[in-house]
TrEMBL record:
PANTHER family: CYTOSINE PERMEASE, CYTOSINE TRANSPORTER CODB. InterPro entries: CodB (IPR030191). It comes from Croceivirga radicis. One of its GO terms (cellular component) is plasma membrane. The chain crosses the membrane at residues 65-89, 109-134, 154-171, 183-203, 268-291, 311-332, 353-373, 379-400, 416-437, 443-462. GO terms for molecular function: cytosine transmembrane transporter activity. Keywords: Membrane, Transmembrane, Transmembrane helix. This is Purine-cytosine permease.
């Protein structure tokens, strides 16, 4: 056995058997049941209590919201099944080790750092959401849509305690994350369903036409929000998880799948979470908008507060508090796990446990700042836009590389620290499309797909000259 192979074995032993730098062996492959609960729990999450109401603040119409969500979520499921799961089962590598083979060790460090930090910020928003539920019995002041800083010592203590628990669960590895999601997801799904039904009763909705009339033909957006149309809803919901499907982050999850068909389990997350849960949460917010407090804020030109804990508590009492807390946990757990894998790729000789604890610590600090949750629509669009184009590098190499006479895993074969073709393609596509979005006022999610396609094409084109 070579020195490199010996070192690889030692790293695997230190890492606790999560196969960060080797393909997942057949003995560790898992069936669809392991993924169904995880995706249903991850996407019927605390963030849904924020996203649903935020759609109401954009003045979207009933048709644009409901049909737009049906289309956008379907496109997301197709992306997971035919791109992410297909490639994951073929190679069974983490995203980070797969990229290292293509990009080179030094370049992938930059990506892993960005990926890990952005995932930590996303997990932090989920900790924020859980804290709004835990704080109810303590009469804690809830964060407002415009808040950026912690609003008191009670808030800080609650966020820190939640962050510690979530980090420890995530640090136990994939098995623990999967089990936790399977245990909690039925409770969370039931809570969304029940809260939606209760909200319908509170709104005195007795027919489908009355339900449709909640959004009707749309309205003017709330102060500080932009107007959403059908395409805003469809494209945003498709790319709400862009980093995970077309960005290939879930290679790290689906490498454990027995077959690519396991990718269809993401539909549980999209249509239970990103459809039913968003609409149920929007109904809870519609109830709050009828209150004297919300009407007073609107009269003063302010957007009424979106605090998931009080919204759920108003509908189903303490069960709502429990549901919001669990929903935050089931989403933050796999998100912190992914972030830990990103840091693992930067520090391969550090155990999975400790890099995940590092990721959890960063997420907990981020959770102290409500802005990540209160501006969730914008943040989700931005983080998907930044990370998604790199996934095109993997997809275009896999599906089109042979037609271009492309040498796969070129950086590994040529021992390149930086693959300049990858760096140039990512920089040109991301920076160029972002500048177009800013200068011409184009909704950022609208340029995510063009940036993704451009990055893949530029990578193959630059590689053609590089490899010749």
């Amino acid at each position: 056995m070579s020195q490199i192979s010996n070192e690889q074995v030692v790293i695997e032993e230190i890492a606790g058997g999560e196969f960060e730098r080797t393909p997942v062996p057949q003995s560790k492959w898992k069936g669809w049941k392991n993924f169904l609960g995880m995706y249903a729990g991850e996407h019927a999450a605390g963030t849904e209590f924020v996203i649903g109401p935020l759609f109401l603040t954009t003045g979207v119409s009933a048709f644009d919201l409901i049909i737009g969500l049906l289309l956008g979520n379907f496109l997301a499921v197709l992306s997971w099944r035919f791109l992410t799961a297909e490639i994951a089962v073929k190679y069974r590598l983490t995203l980070y080790y797969h990229l290292e083979k293509i990009c080179g060790k030094k370049l992938v460090i930059l990506y892993n750092l960005a990926n890990g930090i952005l995932f930590c910020f996303l997990a932090g928003s989920m900790i924020t959401i859980s804290a709004t539920a835990v704080g109810i019995p303590f009469n804690m002041e809830m964060p407002k849509l415009t808040d950026t800083m912690p609003n008191g010592p009670t808030w800080v203590i609650i966020v820190l305690l939640i962050g510690i628990v979530i980090s420890l669960i995530a640090a136990k590895g994939y098995e623990t994350v999967s089990k936790a999601a399977n245990w909690m997801s039925p409770i969370i799904v039931l809570a969304f369903l029940v809260s939606g039904i209760v909200a319908l009763n509170q709104l005195e909705i007795n027919s489908f036409s009355e339900f449709w009339a909640i959004w009707g033909e749309g309205s003017e957006p709330f102060p500080g929000q932009i107007k959403y149309t059908f395409w805003h809803v469809a494209i945003w919901s498709w790319f709400a998880n862009a980093a995970m499907h077309i960005g290939m982050s879930d290679l790290s999850v689906f490498r454990f799948a027995k077959k690519p068909n396991v990718g269809w389990t993401t539909a549980a997350g999209m249509y239970v979470g990103h459809f039913m849960a968003w609409i149920a949460a929007a109904l809870l917010y519609a109830v709050y908008l009828n209150s004297a407090e919300a009407q007073a804020m609107l009269a003063n030109g302010e957007a009424p507060t979106v605090a998931p804990g009080p919204l759920a508590y108003n509908a189903i009492g303490f069960f709502g508090i429990i549901a919001v807390v669990l929903a935050g946990w089931t989403t933050a757990n796999p998100t912190i796990y992914r972030a830990g894998l990103a840091f693992q790729a930067i520090l391969p000789k550090t155990s999975t446990f400790w890099v995940t604890i590092l990721a959890g610590s960063i997420a907990t600090i981020a959770g102290l700042f409500p802005a990540f949750a209160m501006k969730l629509l914008d943040f989700v669009a931005l983080y998907g836009f930044i990370l998604a184009p790199v996934g095109a590098i993997i997809v275009f190499e896999y599906f089109f590389g042979a037609k271009w006479n492309h040498i796969p895993f070129y950086a590994e074969k040529k021992n390149l620290a930086v693959n300049t073709s990858v760096l140039a393609a990512w920089a040109i596509s991301a920076i160029g499309c972002y500048l177009i979005s800013v200068n011409f006022g184009i909704f950022l999610s609208f340029v995510t797909l063009p940036a993704w396609i451009l990055c893949g094409l530029l990578f193959l084109w630059f590689s053609k000259f590089q490899q010749e």
